[in-house]
Specification:
Length: about 240
């Protein structure tokens, strides 16, 4: 596995949490380095290039959000934000600032290991050649011809619907926030116009989903945004026998 040799930078001021994170990741075969503050992390990043950063929101000095946006000024490294429980605004804010994912305190060792491995897998994939098609379940998107089909039937989408679906599919397995979608598909001046997004998502679901109230392809991440499943995720939901 490619990620086995990866180096992970942990940014955490609580020694107990840090000890747990370090133990979990070293057990998974990662090499681990740690910083106790955002400032220290930024200094370290001048010297080292980790494959992934696990970044606590609540830090002494500059907080995790500021640290995240400073890192994004010079690096596309995968970042997982560690947020407090039940703070959807924090999750959205982290993702809007360019974090790839978030994990909520308190987390289990397995959860942390799974998130880290998933984020590294995604960053490996995104460095590969962009796929000309995406097939998930019955749904096929052909980016070369801009065509979408479900099983044997072609699905006719408006330009906006197609761009929205493509954007989600290109980011399969990760959550994109409402503002990220609005900015990308409609433009910066539409950020905050959630009703526009809501209506377009509704129309897409009518065209793509068997049951619009139990969508398979366009998943709602309550309070945060939307996501498109990976082939593995849709396989897992089929195996459980949804519907
Ligand atoms: Ca903290």
């Amino acid at each position: 596995m490619l990620y086995k040799k990866s180096c992970v930078l942990l940014v955490e001021d609580d020694p107990r949490v840090l000890r747990l994170e370090r133990m979990v990741l070293e057990k998974e075969g990662f090499s681990v380095v740690a910083a106790g503050s955002g400032e220290e992390a930024l200094e370290m990043l001048a010297e080292i290039t980790p494959s992934l950063i696990v970044l606590d929101v609540g830090l002494p000095g500059i907080d995790g959000f500021t640290t995240c946006s400073r890192i994004r000024e010079f690096s596309q490294v995968s970042i997982i934000m560690v947020t407090g429980k039940d703070f959807n605004e924090d999750k959205v804010r982290g993702l809007d600032l360019g974090a790839d994912d978030y994990i909520t305190k308190p987390f289990s060792p397995n959860e942390l290991a799974a998130r880290v491995k998933a984020a590294l897998r995604r960053s490996v994939m995104s460095n590969e050649v962009v796929e000309p098609t995406v097939q998930v379940g019955e749904l096929l998107i052909d980016f070369a011809s801009n065509r979408v089909s479900l099983g044997q039937s072609e699905v006719f989408l408006s330009d906006t619907e197609y761009r929205l679906l493509s954007y989600l599919a290109r980011n399969a397995g990760r959550i994109v926030t409402r503002d990220q979608i609005l900015e990308r598909i409609w433009g910066e001046e539409y950020v905050g116009e959630d009703h526009l997004l809501h209506v377009t998502i509704g129309r897409l679901r009518l065209k793509l989903e068997d049951q619009t109230r139990r969508p398979k392809y366009i998943l709602t991440r309550r309070g945060i945004g939307y996501s498109f499943p990976t082939t593995e995720e849709i396989g897992a939901s089929a195996a459980v026998g949804v519907g």
